[in-house]
Write a structure and sequence with these properties.
A hairpin with an 8-residue loop joins β2 (66-83) and β3. The longest helix has 27 residues, at 161-187. The chain is 34% helix and 21% strand. The protein has helices at residues 4-22, 121-129, 161-187, 201-212, 229-235, 238-246, 252-266, 301-312, 352-362, 375-393, 401-405, 423-437, 439-443, 468-478, and strands spanning 47-63, 66-83, 92-99, 106-113, 116-118, 133-137, 193-199, 219-223, 289-292, 295-298, 338-339, 347-348, 409-415, 446-451, 464-465, 484-490, 496-502.
Length: 524
């Protein structure tokens, strides 16, 4: 019995030496005992490590003004890097969450939404929970709680071009460079594979990487990408113009009646698989009575005309299509939102992102009255936005030849009932890539999946992809190019129904009668 303490000590020492050789040590501060190990200065000029802290098992995230705890996480080292660009005066914060154990050898960078460039703590937590080292950047454009992009303008109302460049393309590239280098120092080897994962603004950021920095990521998951930003961000204001022109502002209840009627006429199992082929005429509802919050409302011809204009989308005075309209089957809110004050008449309530894009970027007047925009003014703003910003943030370059040559793979999925980022922009982009590269060659590295009845990034009445990142990993690492994406929705009884999303241009046929069986994709 006297020999056991010495033997036990030897076993513990051996285990500790093995553990320290296999993974980074744990600590409470930069280079401190038992914490994150010291790291070399990041390779990007103007970058320095601001803090290094061990966290784990539970982290707090903002939720409705409170801190909600995410639990069950592995211990990880949070590294914050501060980056500036010479005289620009910017302060970009890049965050890396590096698991102390069970790293899968992969890097996953996550994207933002709206005017926010950074991914959420929830997205970072999901990544490290699955073994990834994760990263995100705020691009130096920390948006106020109001959502206004006050960072866009200097005090003299000139454009802050450095911050726009950060937001549009530069900061994600720097995240990739910094992340890979710090991981190499932290783990003793760089990540074997690097992935981008984002939706909306995050989807746009991913596509920008494929276009400008094609070797940054091996795989890009770009969902509901807010590409064509210079046109989309003005086109989203079109429903407000349509209402302002007619001086008619339907309630949400009235809009919902038109939406339900379109889905009934053109949908299957509560979702429309081909909204571009839906010819439902809103005039068929004229005279019908709907009950809105206990009040009977008769659908007017003026309201039907507003709906028709919103579905048709914006056209110039000469009749040329400027951009796409809201797809039939998509909710009218938030682009066609209205509000009724306690005293006064109902009026339009513009979507904040498009409202602020016009105020801060196109007009460069934060106090500009967007309610005064008519059709002529809209067309002028649309053309001005395109001329000024397409080359910076349009993210619509169809030349992906360098990304293809680098062996990159990209999956985009988009809800066909997306009421914010119109899905027609995604299919338009895919067609333009095909026209340049060829259909088969494009399918070899870039595939698009459309989700009937699904809203913006999630939600709606249709099937939402369950794990598109896993499909991307299988494609990148094992050559399994996906023809379908597993997805799930619920039926009227609340039961989960598994189905498949079909690879564009095939159409997903939705049925709630049964679960999709292997080999029976339901694609047409």
């Amino acid at each position: 019995m006297g020999r056991w303490p010495a033997r036990l000590a030897a076993l513990l020492l051996s285990a500790l030496l093995t553990l320290s050789a296999a993974q980074p040590s744990a600590s409470t501060g930069v280079g401190g005992p038992g914490g994150c190990p010291s790291m070399a200065r990041p390779p990007v000029p103007g970058a320095r490590i601001l803090s290094m802290t061990v966290l784990g098992h539970r982290v707090g995230v903002p939720a409705l003004g409170r801190r909600h705890m995410i639990t069950g996480l592995p211990a990880f080292c949070e590294v914050t890097v501060l980056l500036t660009h010479g005289q620009a005066g910017d302060r970009v914060r890049t965050r890396l969450w590096l698991p102390l154990t069970s790293w899968n050898g992969r890097f996953q960078a996550v994207g933002g939404g709206g005017f926010t460039a950074s991914g959420s703590e929830r997205a970072l937590a999901r990544a490290i929970h699955r073994g990834y080292a994760a990263g995100s950047t705020d691009a130096g454009v920390r948006t106020a709680r109001s959502g206004r992009p006050s960072w866009a303008l200097h005090r003299d109302r000139t454009l802050n071009e450095a911050l726009l460049d950060n937001f549009a393309y530069r900061s994600v590239h720097e995240l990739s460079v910094i992340g890979k280098q710090l991981m190499a120092g932290f783990y003793g080897r760089p990540p074997a594979y690097s992935y981008w994962n984002g939706c909306s603004t995050g989807g746009r950021q991913g596509l920008m990487e494929a276009q400008r920095y094609p070797t940054d990521f091996d795989g890009i998951l770009a969902a509901a990408p807010a590409i064509n930003w210079d046109r989309l961000s003005v086109a989203q204001f079109w429903p407000q113009v349509a209402m302002n022109e007619s001086h008619v502002y339907p309630t949400t209840c009235e809009f919902d009646a038109f939406n339900r009627a379109a889905v009934t006429a053109c949908g299957d199992a509560g979702a429309i698989s081909r909204p571009e082929q839906c010819g439902f005429d809103p005039n068929t509802l004229v005279g019908r009575v709907v009950v809105c919050h206990g009040r009977r409302v008769r659908i007017s011809r003026a309201a039907a005309d507003v709906v028709r204009k919103i579905w048709d989308g914006p056209h110039s005075r000469s009749g040329t299509r400027l951009w796409y309209g809201l797809p039939r089957g998509a909710p009218f809110n938030p682009l066609a939102a209205t509000a009724k004050p306690l005293f006064g008449s109902r009026h339009g309530a513009p979507f904040p992102v498009t409202d602020n894009w016009i105020r801060y970027f196109v007009q460069r007047q934060p106090g500009f009255d967007t309610s005064s925009i008519d059709r002529t003014g809209f067309e002028r703003l649309f053309q001005r936005s395109r001329a000024r910003y397409n080359t910076v943030i349009g993210t619509d370059d169809p030349d992906l030849s360098a990304f293809r040559a680098a062996g990159g793979k990209m999956i985009t999925w988009h809800g066909l009932a997306d009421p914010i980022v119109l899905p027609q922009g995604t299919t338009d982009y895919r067609r333009r890539v095909e026209a340049r590269t060829g259909t088969e060659a494009t399918d070899a590295f870039f595939r698009v999946f459309l989700a009937p009845g699904v809203g913006h990034c999630s939600g709606g009445r249709g099937p939402v992809p369950t794990d598109p990142l896993a499909a991307l990993v299988g494609w990148v690492e094992h050559g399994h190019a996906p023809d379908t994406l597993p997805a799930v929705t619920t039926d009227s009884r609340g039961r989960n129904i598994v189905t498949n999303l079909c690879r564009y241009p095939q159409i997903t046929q939705i049925t709630h009668a049964r679960n999709a069986a292997p080999g029976d994709t339901g694609c047409h």
